[in-house]
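Exercise: predict the structure of this protein bound to N-(3-carboxypropanoyl)-L-norvaline.
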Amino acid sequence: MKKYTSINDIDNLQQTLQEAITLKKSPFQFETLGKHKTLIMLFFNASLRTRLSTEKAAKNLGMQVMVLNVSDAWKLEFEDGTVMNLDTAEHIKDAAKVLSQYADVIAVRAFPSLKDKQKDESEYIINSLVTHASVPIISMESATGHPLQGLADALTIEEFKTKKRPKVVLSWAPHPKALPQAVPNSFAKIMQHLDVDFCITHPKGYELNPEITKDVPIVYNQEEALKDADFVYVKNWSSYMDYGKVLSQDTSWMMTKTKLGNAKFMHCLPVRRNVVVEDAVLDSESSIVIEQANNRTYSAQIVLKSILKSL
Ligand code: SN0
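Solution:
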């Protein structure tokens, strides 16, 4: 693997998932593969799971890890040809080349603005790094995707499924803030590569990018969508069509124990308790969010392993 910025960078998902399951059983199996190799993690935004699970994954492979919160560095310029006489002090072209002197792999987290759709969709932050760095780039959530999360989600479903073709529902939930579409995008993408009966439910106006959801059924009635579900993935996202807007705060979309029925509950975390999902779900045996978070380590490790092998 030469980079991991999208679910599309996975060649063979089934094989990758089986390798991740094996790796989980013996996480130090490749502990010398990353010897004398350095991962630099760049954060433009907050992180808990991503930062720690990616660092743990790298260390399991024997890598060294350096973290830079971009807010502590020089303010970066991304436009080409700008006269940099205002507040940006360093161009991404120079920063990316310098980082490549210190790192063998660079991972980056850069959320969307949720204001300028075209700019967000251009993925200018992660793509500038792909263009100007001379080492592989990993997305730790960019404007339009969170592929490490998607891989961990697929791994969790693979581990917990009790039938060959489980029913998986992605259900929108209310939230006080406007959140990115990155997590649902990557989840919707990866579900289309798994043998699952997948549908999405959300209020009208919350349709995700149709180029991503393709032929996935959209069911506007949540109760109908949840019928006979085996896995319910709950997530808020802001509107894609009315870009970045919060169109609904309808509390009736919150996930409850009654609505969940016998399904397993999934969420990428962090989660707003009793807004997105009630305590009774998160604190029950039906919730697999902690196992999902644990799988973040193995999804990162399988990606890093594959990238290290290509160096
Ligand atoms: C991010 C998101 O993309 O939805 C990261 C999820 C892994 N989530 C948030 O920003 C939640 C922030 C909040 O205030 O609840």
